[in-house]
């Protein structure tokens, strides 16, 4: 996705940092579907915070909508992704 949209490759490193830090703060285990949602949301957050351009495909309204449409078979809703975004920010203690 990063290469397709011509994004800075540093976006992937930042997303992985968010993912690692979240997992370090998380107590318990995640099932594979929640992990996929977490990974997608970390990528979205990294793009949102580190890129000046949005990633859009025809028919999508936002970068989040684009990621949801390109999710590769996972069936997450916008509400679930927004909820995960809030959870990530809370666990990483962002203000």
Amount of beta strand: under 5%
Radius of gyration: 13 Å
Multimeric state? single chain
The coarse silhouette is globular
SSE run: HHHH
End-to-end Cα distance, whole Å, is 28 Å
Largest sheet: none
Count of runs of 4 or more consecutive helical residues: 4
Based on helices, strands and strand pairing, what is the structural class? Answer: mainly alpha
Low-confidence segments: none
Characterize the structure shown.
- There is one protein chain.
- By secondary structure, this protein is mainly α.
- Helices cover 59% and strands 0% of the residues.
- It contains four helices and no strands.
- The protein is globular.
Task: Based on the model shown, name its key terms.
mainly alpha, 4 helices
């Amino acid at each position: 996705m990063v290469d397709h949209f011509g994004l800075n490759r540093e976006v992937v490193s930042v997303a992985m940092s968010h993912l690692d830090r979240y997992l370090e703060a998380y107590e318990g285990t995640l099932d594979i579907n929640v992990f996929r949602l977490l990974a997608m949301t970390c990528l979205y957050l990294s793009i949102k915070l580190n890129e000046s351009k949005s990633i859009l495909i025809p028919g999508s309204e936002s970068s989040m909508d684009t990621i949801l449409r390109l999710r590769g078979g996972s069936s997450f809703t916008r509400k679930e992704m927004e909820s995960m975004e809030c959870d990530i920010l809370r666990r990483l203690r962002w203000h």
